[in-house]
Amino acid sequence: MKLRLVQWLVCPECGGGGLTVEPGRTERRRVHPGHFTDHEREIPGVDLAAGVEVEVLSGALHCGACRLSFPIRGGIPRMLPSGGRAGPPTGHRLTTIDTHEPAWEENFRDLAAPLQERDFLGRLVLDAGCGFGRHVLHAARYGAEVVALDNSVDAVESTWRNCGQLTHVHVVQGDLLRPPLRPSAFDIVYCFGVLHHLEDPHAAFRSLGDLVRPGGRLALWVYGPRAGLTRHVSNALRGLTTNMEPDELMRFSAWIARGLRVFSHTPYRVLNRVPVASQVVSHLPVHDHHQWPFDVVVADVYDRLRIPVRHWFTGEEIERWLTESGYADVHVTRRVRNNETFRAIGTRR
Ligand SMILES: C[S@@+](CC[C@H](N)C(=O)[O-])C[C@H]1O[C@@H](n2cnc3c(N)ncnc32)[C@H](O)[C@@H]1O
């Protein structure tokens, strides 16, 4: 954990901002002064002249208001509210990112649209429900200071492994519903592929909306309505799988992923190259996941089959949420990649 993260943290229990860090094990990391724009101000933990920054690998954060403490383990502040449960294991606990793989960046740009690379430069950004950090990497590469939040141990540890070395990435374990983050602090909050898996997505949406500063943007990507075969097959499978042990489910997911490769991804890849067929292929039950490495497909299948909750939204519903929460310039766009989903973005008044 970098010491400058504290300015954006609050106690998830009482909301107090007076947190102090008690460092245990620390490490000095090289930083390039060019990473920092404000050279006049003293930046906590950073020695610009020496080009080093202190990283707190273990220790604790103490709340001056309610006296609660939160451990820092493996470089990550663990800030779940009391009584809050860590999220379950995720399939992506072993996923590493091939940082040269263009598909990751295309996916980020696609979900973040209409936000573009230049919108991230110099901005404070929250990745809400960061998973293994596939989007964190690109927001940081585009010049943002990124806070990556997730309630799952697997997720925050894999994001740390994949992106924790980057100067402008901070990883926090916390709950979206009671985030340990300062209200109205962020220029951009994005939340991709998360709300539809929560018990109370509207409550999580409101909590995210409060983190955006006036004039800042909230960007979402959620599932749209599912119909027909996809819905029935996935519901039937999940009836079997939500109670499986993690190892058993991982093996099962690997078999499903092999089946998808043969019967869905490969036909897609082949048909997509044929001029007329490529027009038709997006309407067939084959999937564009052919572009992902096999371990990513396994992990995605695992996560889909493990998660007990799934909501489907309409574009109107998401638009209403944003406008009712005081967001202007709301745009909801339909995105169809085999299934219907929605991208939504608004600017906080
Ligand atoms: C389907 S994954 C999406 C991950 C990432 N956004 C991506 O697109 O790769 C959903 C993520 O939301 C996280 N999550 C679920 N409920 C959460 C909560 N209440 N607070 C924080 N994170 C949560 C899960 O642990 C998981 O990493």
Features:
7-stranded mixed beta sheet; Rossmann fold; alpha/beta; 349 residues; 3 domains; binds S-adenosylmethionine; single chain; N-terminal domain of TfIIb
Describe the overall structure:
With 349 residues, this protein is an alpha/beta fold. Helix content is 32%, strand content 24%. It has three domains: 1-74, N-terminal domain of TfIIb, CATH 2.20.25.10; 80-224 and 314-348, 3-Layer(aba) Sandwich (Rossmann fold), CATH 3.40.50.150; 228-306. It contains ten helices and 14 strands. It has a seven-stranded mixed sheet with strand order 10-9-8-11-12-14-13, sandwiched between helices. Strands 1-5-6-7 form a four-stranded antiparallel sheet. A three-stranded antiparallel sheet has the order 2-4-3, with no helix packed on it. Helix 1 (102-112) crosses helix 3 and helix 7 (246-271) crosses helix 9. 39% of the residues are buried. The structure holds S-adenosylmethionine. Residues 87, 90, 129-131, 134-135, 150-152, 155, 175-177, 192-194, 197-198, 303 line the site of S-adenosylmethionine.
User: What is the number of helices?
Assistant: 10
Radius of gyration: 21 Å
Which strand order do you get reading across the main beta sheet?
A: 10-9-8-11-12-14-13
Quick one: CATH superfamily of the largest domain?
A: Vaccinia Virus protein VP39
Question: Uncertain regions: pLDDT < 50 for 5+ in a row?
Answer: none
Strand content: 15-25%
Q: What is the first-to-last residue Cα distance?
A: 32 Å
What small-molecule ligands were found? S-adenosylmethionine
| CATH 2nd-level architecture of the largest domain | 3-Layer(aba) Sandwich
Share in helix: 25-40%
Shape: globular
SSE class: alpha/beta
Helices and strands, in order, run as EEEEEEEHHEHEHEEHEHHHHHEE
- The count of β-strands is 14
Largest pleated sheet: 7 strands, mixed
Specify the oligomeric state.
single chain
CATH class of the largest domain: Alpha Beta
What is the CATH topology assignment of the largest domain?
Rossmann fold
Q: Into how many domains do the coordinates divide?
A: 3
